[in-house]
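Sample pair:
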Amino acid sequence: MRDIEGFILIGGASSRMGTNKALLSIDGRNFVDRTNDALGSVATKTTLVGPNETCLNWPSLPAIGDIHVEWGALGGLHSALSACRAEWAAVVACDLPFVTGELLKRLAGFREGADAVVPLQRDGIRQPLCALYRVIACRDRAEQLIADGERRPRALLDAVNTRAVGFEELSDLKGAERFFMNVNTPEDFAHARAIITRED
């Protein structure tokens, strides 16, 4: 899929975790490397988006900083879209360590006629930080939203032609029940590690 570039969002204060989430490891692989492996299934290259001090831990990956510093997830998403040279950007936050290449390939299959493709969790909530965005349609719209003071990435989904992919369209994939498990706290991290331990 030569028309897709991948981006891993590694910004955020990690205040609830108490340590940098990007550096956490599950099953011997840190969160960035796990996400990079998944993106490799659909993307020609992967770029980190976040603060320089974190990006330096991965000299093998190109990195960019936020254009709108401390603007949260929408700021990181806008930076990814601004840097992307392919038609589509696949954007995944590093605190979703159970995203797989199979999930991203499935999402990529729903791009026709859409400007964004976003999966729905089992409870129907959209996951804008595990989604694909058509750059030409989304980049300028994200810029305008930020100029208007918006910070929520879901606002971008509302502003463009978005294909929402229901959980029932993904549930046959291996590991679907944990695709959208955010790891934001030490308790979340312990739960994620326990899942891997049980499977082993």
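The first strand starts at residue 4 and ends at 9.
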